[in-house]
Every structure is written in C-alpha cells, then in structure tokens.
Amino acid sequence: MSFEPVIEFNNVWKKYSKQQVLNNSLRDELVSVITGRKCRDELADGEFWALRDISLSVKKGECVGLCGSNGAGKSTILKLISNVTYPTKGAISAQGRVAPLIELGAGMHPDLNGIENIYMNGTILGLTIRELKYKVEQIVDFSELHEFINVPVKKYSSGMFLRLAFSIAVHSPADIFLFDEVLAVGDEGFQSKCLQKIENIKSDNGTIFVVSHDTNALGRICDHIVRLEHGIVLTGEKIQ
C-alpha cells in the first residue's frame, strides 16, 4: 500500500439551496469555479451547509466507509470526489480515474438493453471496445442477469439495475471506486459477492469509498469508517 494520499479533502465546505432554480447559491458556485473567488460565508434563505469543514486523507488501497443518517453528507462527499459538484470552500484532490456508482441510472440509457448499456457505460468509464468485447461475458456473469441481458433496462427492477451498474464499474480500469448504498439492494448471495469483489479491488491497490447504513458490512471491508451528522464528521474509526 502506498503512503501517498490519493484523495485529500482540506477544510471542505459545501453549500446547497432548497430552491430548485438557478439562484444566488448556484451562481456563486459557478463564479467561484470560473474565477477562483470565494463564495460568501453566510447562508441566504433556503440555503444550508451539506458539509462543514471536512478534512480527509485516503491512501491507495484503502477502503473508507461513510455512514450516518439521511442528509448527513455522505453522498455529497462522493459527488465532490467525482466532480459532479464542487466545494463552496476548501480544496479537494483526487489522483486517478474515478468509477462512480452514485445515482441509480447514471450513465445508462433506459431504452437500451443490458448488453448495449455495458458498452455505453463501460466506454464512459474508460474501457475500450476491444476491452469490452473481452470483458462483456465476465460482466454479465458477475451480474447474474443472463435471462434479462437483452431486455431494455427500463424494465429492470432497482436491484437488477444496481447489479448491472456495479458489475460494469468493478470491471473498469478505475483507480478510485465510489459506491453509494450498493450493499442495500440485492439478495444476500449477491451482497457477499460484492463484498468479495471490493476486497479484490483493495488487493489490487484500488481506493474505495462505500456509503452504507450496514455498519457490520462496512466493518468487514473498510480500513476506516467515517460517521457523519449534519455535514460534520463525528468520528473517524480505524478498523483493526
């Protein structure tokens, strides 16, 4: 395991607005990204801090579990690592290719079947067509969706969808893997297979973030568990 950090959060704050329109908060974020200017510290009406003064350092080959109640800031951390959104204040560094499994359906087309989505999503995650032709059978086998692989994914259950998305992600050439509640869907046998695959990724020096309410499962695979509440780190536990 390398001692150099792959992911660093330095005093990161993230502000969101409850408004579903392009408001001052989003304009401030866009201005700060383009110009490098800091956003204002005070909160306007409808705004709230999703993350407050978060500092983390994660090395290659480490697995970090994020737990906490809904709205604690777990998914926001994953979105910041994958550049889905940007910090309001503070700095983030992520060294390497990222495979995010954050939002069910992201990177998938509902009208395409499973095989077609393997090629589309796999390409997005950095696999070449030649690599996909070699790996497509492995991906289908891992997902256990042989009977449904030629069915449009809009007809999949959430569990089937997650099986396919997870299978594509873990066969990608990423360095950093982000999994949001991947252990919450699927039967016990598939969950066990996911845990073993995560262990294999760790052995290959992949860096992993896992969001889950299942602290027992996190304890099995994680080197550290970070507990969040209202955007603040309550504890950071090293797993022995």
What does this protein structure show overall?
- The protein is an alpha/beta fold and 240 residues long.
- The chain has a domain at 1-95 and 222-240: P-loop containing nucleotide triphosphate hydrolases (Rossmann fold).
- The protein has helices at residues 24-35, 74-81, 114-124, 129-143, 158-170, 188-203, 215-221, and strands at residues 5-17, 47-59, 63-67, 89-94, 98-101, 176-180, 207-211, 224-229, 232-238.
- Strand 6, helix 6 and strand 7 form a beta-alpha-beta unit.
- The chain starts with a strand and ends with a strand.
Could you report the average pLDDT, rounded to the nearest whole number? 86
Q: CATH architecture of the domain at 1-95 and 222-240, please?
A: 3-Layer(aba) Sandwich
Largest sheet strand order: 5-6-7-3-8-9
Q: Per DSSP, what share of the residues sits in E-state strands of 2 or more residues?
A: 25-35%
Structural class: alpha/beta
Structural descriptors:
globular; 34% helix; 6-stranded mixed sheet; 240 residues; Rossmann fold; alpha/beta; 3-stranded antiparallel sheet
Question: What's the arrangement of secondary structure elements?
Answer:
Blueprint: E1 5-17, H1 24-35, E2 47-59, E3 63-67, H2 74-81, E4 89-94, E5 98-101, H3 114-124, H4 129-143, H5 158-170, E6 176-180, H6 188-203, E7 207-211, H7 215-221, E8 224-229, E9 232-238
Parallel strand pairs: 3-7, 3-8, 5-6, 6-7
Antiparallel strand pairs: 1-2, 1-4, 8-9
Helix pairs in contact: 3-4, 3-5, 4-5
